[in-house]
From TrEMBL:
Gene3D superfamilies: 3.30.70.920, Winged helix-like DNA-binding domain superfamily/Winged helix DNA-binding domain. It comes from Halobellus rarus. Residues 9-72 form the HTH asnC-type domain. The keyword Transcription applies. The keyword NADP does not apply. This is HTH-type transcriptional regulator LrpA1. NCBIfam families: TranRegLrpA1_Halo (NF041395). One of its GO terms (molecular function) is DNA binding. The gene is lrpA1. SMART domains: HTH_ASNC (SM00344). Keywords: DNA-binding, Transcription, Transcription regulation. PROSITE patterns: HTH_ASNC_2.
């Protein structure tokens, strides 16, 4: 996004602080509050803004363990496996990937043991998932 455009400046503020008020966004993007409201509504309608989220430091979550799991999927079962993964409560987010794995899943559970069980017993039991490669998150650095 071109940061000098009105849309770009508004998005820059939102990416820094998704909880910023219209007044704060207007001040930081050097536009009026009605302009912020109009652009945000338009970007939501166009699918540019698809949601708002909170960044979480896994180390601070004493009762939650998080892993990024690379998933290999048999191509003939890709659609069905992806549909099943999207329905799992433990899967916080799911991405397609051009890297070493076809899919990347952010998986959450109460602790490391439960997380291991979700991966071994739930993810790997889905027809078409051929391998799971977890990376357990420990400390957020940025």
């Amino acid at each position: 996004m071109e940061a000098t455009s009105t849309e770009g400046r508004i998005l820059d503020v939102l990416e820094e602080d998704a909880q910023a008020s219209y007044a704060e966004i207007a001040e930081r993007a050097d536009v009026s509050k009605p302009t912020v409201r109009k652009y945000i509504r338009q970007m939501e309608e166009e699918g540019i803004i698809v949601g708002y989220s909170a960044d979480v430091d896994p180390k601070k979550l004493s009762e939650t363990s998080i892993a990024l799991v690379g998933l290999d999927v048999a191509s003939e079962r890709y659609v069905e496996a992806t549909r099943e993964l999207k329905e799992l409560e433990a899967v916080e987010s799911l991405y397609t990937s051009s890297g070493d794995h076809m899919l990347m899943a952010e998986v959450r559970a109460p602790d490391g043991d439960a997380l291991g069980e979700v991966i071994a017993e739930t993810l790997l039991s889905i027809d078409g998932i051929t391998a799971a490669h977890p990376s357990f998150l420990q400390e957020r650095l940025k």
